[in-house]
Every structure is written in structure tokens, then in C-alpha cells.
Specification:
5-stranded mixed sheet; alpha+beta; Beta-Lactamase; 50% helix; two-stranded antiparallel ribbon; 7 strands; 9 helices; 234 residues
């Protein structure tokens, strides 16, 4: 009878994984109060080996740290590149401002582009209504019926920056004195609204100038060149 009178103990509740996860999320300090559990919990790798949760956490933190270090390195590299480019633009501005003549403007621009920006060829074209002489190398008047203007008719019409590959015929028109083939170029309007002309930067590398590249540097260069030209053209 004693056995019949005994009260059966209630069965322990069975917890599913979702309840365990919810409990741990709501009590993030649980493992801090029971650090001994970290040594017994195991995480199975894809290779089949098992490691403690502490080891797994260390691996994850190490991976995150490497990613952060890589990102920081790239940011520092970009900052250094931008600083160097800003210094080179400043040097270009000084060179153009101090140039005593149109010929010196062209020579200074060519020198800075080659030495500091890796540009192989430079041509400045100016509207023939503003300047007609042909006595400065790399500086040409843009006559309405000239072969150069016809070769770049779309640019002359839209006055929008063009960057990308350059075929041999157009390269020859734009850079007639180039000793090696020019495979890509950036063509930038000078004083777009006033239609002063253009500045063209050419490279022997086909990938140097791309259609979707940033235009800020090109626009800054064109503004500096236009200001230098206006100061000497009157």
C-alpha cells in the first residue's frame, strides 16, 4: 500500500534547441557564470575534428581581426595614394602658374603628367577662333574642317569627357609625334561652356584609361590648364 500511496515525482521538462538558444540569448552572462562549460562544449569542423568552444571563438576572433587588419591596410594605402596625388596636383598647379609662356605651359604639363601621373602623351587643342598658330609642339588649333576635329566629332559636339581605348587612326590624329602606339586616352573639355578646347592625355597601356573611371582628377587638370591658357591668351 505504501507503494500505492507514494507520489510520483514530476518528469523534468524537455527543452528543445530553440528554447535553449532563446535562453542563452536572453542571458548572455550565463557562460560567464559557468566558464567551465566552455571547455566541454565542442564544435565540429567541416573536417570532422572537434574543438572546444573557446578554441572556436579564438579562431573566429582571429579571422575577424585579420579582416579588420586587411581593411585598415587598404584604407591606409588609399589615403597614402590620395595624399601623393594631391601633392602632385599641387606641383602641377605651381608649374602651370609659373610658366612664362604658352610653350612653357605645354612643356610643364607634359613633364608633370609623365613624371607624376604616368601619362605618356599630352595634347592641348584650342578653338581656332582663339589661337591659330602651329608653332608649339603639342599645342594645336582646332579648325572646324580639320582631320583632328572630324576624328573626334562626337566629343566636339557633346563636350563630354571621353575615356577608354583608342584606335590607331584616332591616336595618330591626337598624338602625331608619339614614338610608341597610344592605346588609351582621356579627352577632357577646356571651359566646356565657353568651348575653349580640349586637353588629351594618352597612355601606351590599353587599361590606363577606362570609360567608368573617376573624373575628378581629369576635371581638376582641365581647370588648371584652362586657367593657365587664359592667362597667356588674354
Amino acid at each position: 500500500m505504501a507503494e500505492l500511496d507514494a507520489v510520483a515525482e514530476p518528469a523534468a521538462p524537455v527543452l528543445d534547441e530553440k528554447q535553449v538558444v532563446a535562453y542563452l540569448k536572453s542571458r548572455p552572462e550565463f557562460l560567464l557564470r559557468h566558464p567551465e562549460l566552455l571547455e566541454h562544449l565542442e564544435v565540429v569542423h567541416a573536417t570532422g575534428s572537434a574543438v572546444s568552444l573557446i578554441e572556436r571563438q579564438v579562431d573566429l576572433l582571429r579571422g575577424k581581426n585579420l579582416k579588420l587588419e586587411d581593411r585598415l591596410a587598404r584604407l591606409l594605402e588609399t589615403a597614402a595614394d590620395n595624399e601623393k596625388r594631391a601633392a602632385n596636383v599641387h606641383k602641377l598647379a605651381r608649374t602651370l602658374i609659373r610658366a612664362p609662356s604658352l610653350a612653357a605651359v605645354v612643356a610643364g604639363l607634359r613633364s608633370c603628367m609623365k613624371e607624376d601621373f604616368g601619362v605618356d602623351e599630352v595634347t592641348i587643342g584650342v578653338n581656332a577662333n582663339v589661337y591659330k598658330r602651329h608653332d608649339i609642339e603639342g599645342f594645336v588649333p582646332l579648325e572646324p574642317d580639320s582631320a583632328l576635329v572630324r576624328a573626334f566629332e562626337n566629343f566636339i559636339r557633346t563636350r563630354l569627357i571621353e575615356c577608354g581605348p583608342l584606335d590607331a587612326e584616332r591616336a595618330k590624329r591626337l598624338f602625331p609625334k608619339a614614338e610608341q602606339p597610344i592605346l588609351s586616352a582621356a579627352i577632357v573639355p577646356l571651359e566646356k561652356e565657353k568651348n575653349l578646347g580640349l586637353v588629351a592625355l594618352g597612355s601606351r597601356e590599353a587599361e590606363r584609361f577606362q570609360p567608368r573611371q573617376g573624373k575628378l582628377f581629369l576635371e581638376m587638370t582641365a581647370e588648371l590648364v584652362a586657367a593657365a591658357l587664359r592667362a597667356r591668351l588674354g
